[in-house]
Amino acid sequence: MVAQSLEKMSDLLNRLGYLQTRRDRTPNLDLARDLVARDDMAGIQEIAKNMWNDNKNIHGDCMNVIYEIAIIDPNLITQYADDFIKFLKSKHHNMVRGAIIALAEIAKVKPEFTFKHLDEIKKIKETGSDNITVDKSISALAYTSAANEEYSKTIFPYLIDQLSICYFKEVSEHAERILPAVNESNKAEFIKSLNKRSDELSGSDFTRLKKIIRLAEKL
Questions:
Q1: For the whole model, what pTM was predicted?
Q2: pLDDT at residue 1 above 80?
Q3: I need a surface site. Which of 23, 58, 97, 213 has the fewest CB within 10 A?
């Protein structure tokens, strides 16, 4: 896609944090909320196109706006799902992080898409450069797994395996993110996996894990 020059930015793009010389992301969040409130599909399309802008600050802000839209209503950005898969290979960590955040939301409403791209999502889980990227990849897998029995049979064993090998400080966080994929038929396996790790935890981590186990037991 052809990037716009800074001299010809639209009124919409001029609302981005970078073009307002802001260091915080409040303008981007405000823009996302406004686009959703107005159901402005043309505006969303313009922001989505500029995820490919040559200016890294602009494409980063546009990715921020798009994934904030996804968090509010993922149905509004499912048509850009292929773009997010491409961004998983970006050399810019913020674009990878934004893409997996968006894909985690898309998995809630279009799990058939994320199921087709399990390998790419698993790779991000295993190579992610920051906690948010790793956590959101687990969420994407969990929401996909929750969609139906076929997906669960493929994905849930992988999620359980991640619980068994992750750093002890990550157990509660990962378990909480996997919880949407837990149901009556697989909860015993989930609880068994958590109980095996519980002796490694203490304090708030232990309390959090026990709460997750109680929630799973009620399913």
A1: 0.92
A2: no
A3: 23
